[in-house]
């Protein structure tokens, strides 16, 4: 078999795909900004409740316009509850709590390790997604990037900043398990938008008692207009609208190209944090982000594709 057949092929993206991809990366990067703004007046679990609750209302309003209906059987809703815990309740809570101790841009960089944890979990829990050389190299580079970011802080001791960083690394691990578990919804015949609506609805139901017990919202001061705007932004824009964009790009450009959004999220999060929150990251944070970006390129085959094309061009030049 020639080397060309071993190189992953990527679907060509048109101008619309690129526009939507940049928009999605900017929107998801904005979720870190909105969370940081809301943290000035609200505790983490209340922010998570606002995010999934308003998103559930928004998606439920959109479903009839798309001719979609929610299932009513108990087995499906139990599955929604599991994916809600893995894909919403746990990771969102960890990320928001982590941001109460570290910069929003740094949280976004650490969360960009999600694909590496997904590869690790998939290797051990599935039979059809084993390690390849590219995946193994990508995971190694990506974890090295995380070590560059977190390692020096750990060496100084386990203070609140370190625990915040670990929380933002725990979120990608939860997302990885969610990715593996979530594969069953396609087999169940559920559309992506129905699955998205079901999981944020289930997440809302699960988070409500936690908020009542832990945050006691009736004891909190009335949030300001700015905080309400941040909560609505993170829920309607960064969750409901983002899900619609995500599935639109997935259908048009494919999962491999969609992975490019992981490169874009930290960029917008860092810019928003610097421009509006006065955040500044250390040089090692950018070095870690560069390693993570290189790891993603290696893992999804883009580096191999470029190398293969380079060899083809060289061989043609030599033959001429």
Short description:
The protein is mainly alpha-helical and 320 residues long. It contains 14 helices and no strands. It has one domain (15-319).
What does this molecule look like?
The protein has 320 residues and is mostly helical. It has one domain (15-319). The chain is built from 14 helices and no strands. The chain is globular and about 75 Å long. It starts with 14 loop residues before the first helix and ends with a helix. The model is unreliable at 1-9 (pLDDT under 50).
Summary keywords:
single chain; 320 residues; 14 helices; globular; disordered N terminus
Global Rg: 20 Å
Q: Note the gap between the termini.
A: 25 Å
**Segments where pLDDT lies below 50 for 5+ residues?**
1-9
Total discrete domains: 1
Total strands: the figure is 0
Structural class: mainly alpha
- SSE run: HHHHHHHHHHHHHH
State the helical fraction.
Answer: over 70%
Number of helices: 14
Topology (elements, then pairings):
Elements: H1 15-38, H2 44-62, H3 74-99, H4 104-111, H5 114-125, H6 133-156, H7 160-181, H8 184-187, H9 192-215, H10 225-253, H11 255-258, H12 261-276, H13 283-299, H14 302-319
